[in-house]
Amino acid sequence: MAEEVILLDYWASPFGTRVRIALAEKGIKYEYKEENLDEKSKLLLEANPVYKQIPVLIHNGKVVCESTIILEYIDEVWKDKSPLLPCHPYERAQARFWADYIDKKIYSNSVKLLRSKGEEQETAKKDWIECFKALEGELGEKPYFGGQSLGIVDVGLVPFYLWFNTFETLANFSMGTECPKIVDWGKRCMDNDSVSKTLQDEHKIHEILVEYM
Amino acid sequence: MGDDIILVSFWSSPFGARVKIALAEKGIIDYEYKEEDLFHKSPFLLRLNPVYQKVPVLIYNGKSICESLNIIEFIDEIVKGDSPMLLPSHPYHRANARFWADFIDKKIYETCKKVWRSKGEEQEAAKKELIEIFKLLEQELGEKPYFGGESFGFVDISLIPFYSRFYTLETFGNFSIEQECPKLMEWAKRCLERESVSKSLPDSRKIYEFVLHLNNMLGI
Dmax over Cα atoms in chain A, in whole Å? Predict the structure, then answer.
């Protein structure tokens, strides 16, 4: 069956990046449509009337919104290659828990860290590092959160790896010192084509993050 | 089945009620319920859920699962066979169900608190926001008996525990949810006919008294 897959996205979005990595992992061909977030297209507003946000996946005319939900959808439809979730229900529950943790904590804490100053920034930095330490605990000695290969948690988290340098400079700390295992994990993820060919240029991301400060 | 299942929750928690409903729907009646004191959380809970330190937590053969929607998906996956599936089988419908359950998670709990903890203009704004959320859900429901279609499912389970808060919302906010969202009320009453729901939902008046008590403690 001829599959029509369209992704509405914004190049610098970590949430859109997740979906692009997953599509690459699964070898899915798709049409990429870049959105102007200051002037959202009619297609986006109609496809996602509830949140009016990217990413949005349109598969054979059917719309799926919210990046983590899109990742599960992709995993369920294209299930024969590169599974993003484990088979066992308990391990699946753990993967979903940590994917949700990343959704709840990382972006909001990142924004706080970007925009705060002085004592507030010190607190934001502490909170941000604590999130990654919790994730380090979950990673343990595994090469990836998904075990031997990339899983939903890896795909969900790795776009934020590009933000490390900006935050280290901004708040004067080193992720290599604070969370060495996460830094190793990030480098390991980059050994995967689906990640290295999808992640944007770090300098361009830095420029965008600076605009948010 | 021989499985050791424990649900750790708090009587007023809508999230805990979701899990009770899901367990009942899947025919799991043989489990231990442990009530937590949310004002004095036990070391047990803090060990089970070190990340959020919240209820509900499901302990399945010694392994803990946290976050209510996550727990429901887990229960749905471990119990198959004769019991109904709570999530649809088609990936697109599953994605849609997850979307609306997630919407309910993001929007309802905090907005409810705003309605009964604020006053004046702030309260009016919160009330307006809540009604808009309910109207959007009504739209999604459409003419279907349940959000899941003909069968009671994941989105219904995610939303129905908030019915226990309707009396409190209406009393504090001075409005009628039935008037604003008649289809949603019809849906709620339909859900309440199910034993899994009626036996799992906390009493509406008890919720109201509890909110009054909490507001008192907070000096509101």
Answer: 57
- B60-104 pLDDT, tens digit each: 999 999 999 999 999 999 987 778 999 999 999 999 999 999 999
**Residue contact A69–B102, C-beta within 8 A:** yes
* Three-state DSSP state, A109: helix
pLDDT per residue as tens digits for the range B101-118: 999 999 999 999 999 999
Residue B85 is which amino acid? M
Whole-model pTM: value is 0.96
Contact of B94 with A68, CB cutoff 8 Å: no
Interface probe, candidates A64, A88, A106, A127, chain B, greatest B C-beta count within 10 A: A64
Q: How far apart are CA B212 and CA A52, in angstroms?
A: 37
The ipTM of this complex is 0.96
Judge whether B98 is closer than 8 Å to chain A, CB to CB.
Answer: yes
What residues of chain A have any CB closer than 8 angstroms to a CB in chain B? 50, 59, 62, 64-66, 69-70, 72-73, 76-77, 89-90, 92-94, 96-97, 100-101, 134
C-alpha distances (whole Å) from B199 to each of A119, B28, B163 are 49, 14, 13
Nearest in space to B6 (alpha carbons), one of B55, B79, B77? B55
